[in-house]
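Aim 2 progress update. The chain analyzed this quarter is reproduced below.
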Amino acid sequence: MKHLLSASDLTRDDAVSLLDTAAELASVTDRAVKKLPTLRGRTVANLFFEDSTRTRLSFEAAAKRLSADVITFTAKGSSVSKGETLKDTALTLEAMGAQVIVLRHHASGAAQRLAQSGWIEASVINAGDGTHEHPTQALLDAYTLRQHLREGAGDLEGLSVVIVGDILHSRVARSNVALLTTLGARVTLVAPPTLVPVGVQTWPCEVSFDLDEALVGADAVMMLRVQTERMTAAYFPSVHEYSRRYGLDSARAARMPDHAVVLHPGPMNRGMEITAEVADGPRALIVDQVANGVSVRMAVLYHVLSSQEGAP
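Predicted structure tokens:
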């Protein structure tokens, strides 16, 4: 696996192998010295054209725990503000020794463009491209679900997962639909009609506009942030109306089975798509997702760099 560009590129065996590797690497966090020498001498460049906290820091921590050197580039305060292109920035990072470029970009398809352009020899990991995909987020979500609901199992066969909110602008939703269904889960999307993408009927999932009905029998619900920064029009009447119909509060969460869990990729709009009581409650695995993200990204970096000639 030279690149990780899309969750759709992963077979069930690929995904299970990554999740199994992440489970093995997770034990590093329990050690006094949280490092392995696995990628010593390798260099990972984080190339972020969009603001990020969780994903950028998670990739940094993952690379450092595997003893890789890390170069972190953010567009703000860089030559990008002077007009430098993605190509030239990537070439600069590769010239500095980067064997892997972790790319977050505002343009959908940017990671694929960089990987398939022939500009660089480095591997590319998609850390989120526009409204397209975010495959490592889907992997850490799947890892979290497997950890809490399928202990000892390889995949997620038979699980019912409900994804709620701004599906239209969500790369997380697109990647999760692809990966969770590959792993055997049944996915239902819930959103206002204005926040459902055109062509969603071709996705391997169901669509509902009734959150209360969808939650009955769900094993997990993933709440998505409303991405107002990507909106150019009014997609719902008001925040209050959105929260009333599509927000997760304690009363609504009570409709779920006792074992059901709550996920959120962050950052959260507390009081809009999720209340503080639910976000901080016993069902919520939001902090677990962040912790698991480091282990999953360690696994991805290991698999990608292991595919390169001369990798450890």
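The CA atoms of residues 131 and 169 lie 5 Å apart. The longest strand covers residues 123-129. These observations will guide the mutagenesis experiments scheduled for the next reporting period.
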